[in-house]
């Protein structure tokens, strides 16, 4: 478990992390999300003792990182896959890490196999593709068999097979009871991988919630409706019940603001024969953009707005004030 309490980091006038309080729980993949400059990397650096907090603290299983006797056995991190000596082989890179952290040498072979690099472990790491470097970075994070994994953009550069592999690995690591913290801007992948989300904007907590609640909570319900012969009266009845209705060129209706049951009852009252009635939820990308729209907005290179607040019924910083 990784716990942050009132964690704050200022760089001069910039507040990179602002009074952040949350707990990253074991046994699940937590997506750590936020727009560019939201403070994700800084939070990870603070948790790893690589930056000093201005206020508040981060604790790993109740202790600060600096107090951990063998940190790599507690926390494995991937911050920058390119940070490797190009003339060392993948195996030599991991062996050096294992030796300097008093980890058994047999772990090197184990993690190389787990990330699928065993066949190229003798090659100079400088010749690795970005995807291979990401795998090597994940191997390094796993070297101490840690309970917590902090992975900053670990799937950048992976091809579709690599991404599917990484998804399986991360889910497996969580199922083994580890705390898996994953930051990525690849929302479609995050949607498939994460169980839980911590969303920050401009250093502040916006949402700390399950993926399912995040997806369900932020956008009004939408229903895709196809009727055999949709009549203007049906559309008018939907609108007078409060729905926004968009009629597609193929005559499908996209109904916002009413759930499928309500749309079905209106269709029944209007003697419509429906051939489709499909509830649609927002994608993670849509909900993320909606929730963070006011958190960080760039005008040129300038951040201009304050964070919007969080989701209903969850551990949150504020009350959700989105478009509901
Ligand atoms: N060493 C530093 N000195 C000054 N400002 C910094 C430093 N590191 C980060 N910042 C600033 O702190 C804020 C948070 O940056 P951080 O890199 O943590 O965000 P992020 O969420 O990881 O962004 P991205 O998604 O773009 O990687 C930004 O405004 C950034 O410019």
TrEMBL record:
Q: Which Pfam families match?
A: ABC_tran
Instruction: Answer yes or no on keyword rRNA processing.
Output: no
Give the ABC transporter domain ranges: 2-227
Which keywords are on file for this protein? ATP-binding, Nucleotide-binding, Transport
Q: Name one GO molecular function term.
A: ATP binding
Q: Which family does it belong to?
A: Belongs to the ABC transporter superfamily.
Q: Mind telling me what this protein is named?
A: ABC-2 type transport system ATP-binding protein
Give the organism, scientific name: Actinoplanes regularis
